[in-house]
Amino acid sequence: MDTTEKSSPSKPNNNDNEEQEEEEEDEEYEEIDEEEEELNQQIPQSTESKLRNQRFKVQTLSRRLSSELVPIRVHDVIINGNTKTKDWIIEAELDGIEKATTMQELMQACQIAIAKLQGLEIFDSCKVKLEAGPIELPDTANVIIDVVETENKLSGAFGVYTKPSTNTWTSEGTVKYKNVFGYGDLWDASLAYGGNQATEVSLGVYAPRVKGFLTPLLARIFMSSQDWQDFSSYKEKLMGMSLDLISTKHQDLVYTLGWRTLTDPSQMASRSTRRQLGHGLLSSLKYTFKFDRRDSPFRPTKGYAFVSTTRLGGLTPDNRSLRFLRQEFDVRLAVPFGFYNTALNLGISAGVVFPWGKGFRTKPSPLPERFNLGGEFSPVCTLGGPTTLWGFKTRGVGPTEPRRQRRDEENDGTHDFIGGDLSVTAFADLSFDLPIRWLRDQGIHAHIFAGSGNVAKLTQDEYKHFSPRKFLDSFRLSAGCGIVIPTRLFRLEANYVHLLRRDEHDRGKTGFRFSFSAPF
Amino acid sequence: MEANETTQRNTLVVRKPCFGLPTGCPQCLSAYIYLKLSQCSFHLDYHLNYPDSDQIPYFEAGDSVIYNNEKEGIIECLKKDAGDLDVGLSSLSEWIPNKVMLTTWLADALEYELWVGSDPSSASSIYYSDLSWPLGKVLFWKKANWVKLKHEISKDNAEVKEEEIYGRANSAYDALSTLLGEDNYLFENRPSSLDAIFLAHALVVLQAFPESSILRTNFSKHANLVRYVQQRKEELIEAVGTSPSNDPYFGAGASSSTSGGPSTSSSKFKRKPKKEQQTKEEKKYKRRAKYFVVAQVVAVVLFLSIMSGISDDGEIELDDGDLEYGYDD
Question: Which fold has domain B2-130+156-284?
Answer without folding.
Answer: Glutathione S-transferase Yfyf (Class Pi); Chain A, domain 2 (1.20.1050)
